[in-house]
Amino acid sequence: MKKFIENIIIIMVLTVAILFSYAVMEKKISGKSSSEFINFLFNTQEKASDNKNTDKTSIKDSIEQERKQSDTMDYKAVWLSYLEFNSYRKSVKNNNEKNFRKFYKYILQRIKLLGFNRIIVQVRPFGDALYESQYFPWAACISGKQGKNPGYDPLKIMTEMSHQENITIEAWINPYRISSGDSIQSLSKTNPAKIWFSSQNTKRNVLSYNGSLYYNPSSESVRNLIIKGVEEIVQNYDVDGIHMDDYFYPAFTEKNVGTAFDAPEYEQQIKSDMSSTDSQSFSSNKSSNEISLADWRRNNVNRLVSGIYKAIKENNPQVTFGISPAGNLDNLRNDLEYYVDIDTWVSQNGYVDYLMPQIYWGFTNETAPFDKVTDEWAALMKDSSQKLYIGLQLYRMGSTEPGQSDKKELQKASLLKKELSYLKKKKKIEGYCLFSYQYLDCRNKEYHFDAEQFSTKRKKLLNQIVKSLKNNS
Fold first, then answer.
1. pLDDT, average across residues 264-278
2. Cα torsion for 281, 287, 289, 294, to the nearest 10°?
3. Quick one: which of 143, 161, 349, 352 could link to 148 by a disulfide (CB 3.0–4.6 Å)?
4. DSSP string, 6-24
């Protein structure tokens, strides 16, 4: 032990001697006075410490820069649906502009904290509007009764406040859906659907199917109404985009597909050999009776989509137009539902700027596994000029409903992180959107979103997801 201590003392003496020698040399070279020796000695140690801290900072900055470069997801959005507006209206004592601004400011600040840069707000949920419209009545979800003016313009406020927070905003419309019930009498007296239905000449512009009301997709008057409704949004509001989801045609069965909904209009057009105007919508060398009912319905949707795209670009080329169709491509291409001509939209210009398929399943889903469906979309749009974003299933997280083949995965907060990591590996995919906002805020005690009614276990899982998003924002 004594020998060990002696060795330590010798090392310390040698170290001091070397430092003194170095100081003397530095003095001779740089002209330092002897009185600066102590300062020089300690400054040398401080510089070494500073260099060490600088290295740490550089490494940290380098890692952060690398993380940002590897994250190609420029589009990080969340849907804000009519359900959240319903919750707001029911939760406030006074539904006025001041309280609405407070509500929306809270949402903007929260999504910014979680790393989102875009919000998609539902402004035409059931043939009614969350803005002052020349064509559609005020929305029931914001005022409590369809046609009742809430006393302020929600869309105007939301565009203004979003841009103040550097959040991009898209106006989300449902084109054909009128109501989730089939009562015409429940509609506002100024609702165009009610007005049309009251006249025998225009009654078929409104169709009832499976307990819900829809605008007739085959009607030119309907098509013009929807396009005009989009035009007024682009002309009157500073929105960054127009957005539609997967609500097009409802689903039919093998038994009723040839007779239900707008099938009579199809038969009528065949019998009358169609007008020359409508014939031009198809091929110049194809007569009306050569087109199938399914393709005729797809063409009805195509005419609406291309008409909306044209109207948007003629009014403001900077405003984007995107659609979020159902995620399963097999379903989109079948002849019983949707009638979305997805292959035309991704191969031709003049329809959409982006597509956002709703891939609402886990990796273990037996029918539509997340990775398989995602790969199919990436392959489909590999050479397309349209952008590809992905809609994700926040609302299913923690769900214990029976019959879900990916039920176990849905109980893991890590599923969303795993899905986002998978998307980042796909060069074509440039962003995502979560459905919907309320599932990011399920413990909110002020606005009482529907998600507040979830089990404690499910809310805990959703909060774990929120924490993960916050840490990675």
1. 76
2. -30
3. 143
4. HHHHHHHHHHHHHHHHHHH
